[in-house]
Amino acid sequence: MSPTSISTTAARVVSIVLHPFLVLAALALLAAWRVDPASLSRTALGIGVAIAIVSVFIWQRRRGGHWQTVDASRRQERPLLYALALLVAGAYWIWMGGRASATSNGVLAAVAMLCVAGIANRWIKLSLHMASLSFAGVAAWPLWPAASIVALAALPLLGWARLRMARHTVPEVLGGTALGLVTGVVLLAAA
């Protein structure tokens, strides 16, 4: 295996392990575990169903030739992804009772973040990988500071992976990071 293919494989692994669905699912599970342990099984079930729905949708879009990659890398592929993510996040919020809680407030913040990214998509394809990880890094601070530090420390590695795979440009990586950080700070300030 050449160094280039090893590097690309490593970038793919990092992008999969730190995929927005996995990062946001981990954050929701962490919030449920630390703030409302009684909701942990309901949260896990809701996340499992949401991931299954989104996975089937992504598989269908990719298999049907509508998307070049599984992460909707082209800007024109993104509007439908944003719509589905908002629908799934809204359904999850209702599933969790539609009331203010650690997980539902986090879901609403993530929805707001997706809305901003969706609007910005007209001009720039912000990295949702970077936005999700930076948001989770900030939002996790009051729940478990060690997890927060790990998430924030992983940002440069994820940024490298997104650039290495040519999924984003430097402004898209930095813009996604900034969006996630600001959203996380707003969530904590509102708490």
Automatic annotation (TrEMBL):
Keywords per UniProt: Membrane, Transmembrane, Transmembrane helix
Keyword Ribonucleoprotein: no
Membrane-spanning residues: 12-33, 39-59, 80-96, 102-121, 133-161, 173-190
Top-level taxon: Bacteria
Keyword Transport attributed: no
UniProt name for this protein: Phosphatase PAP2 family protein
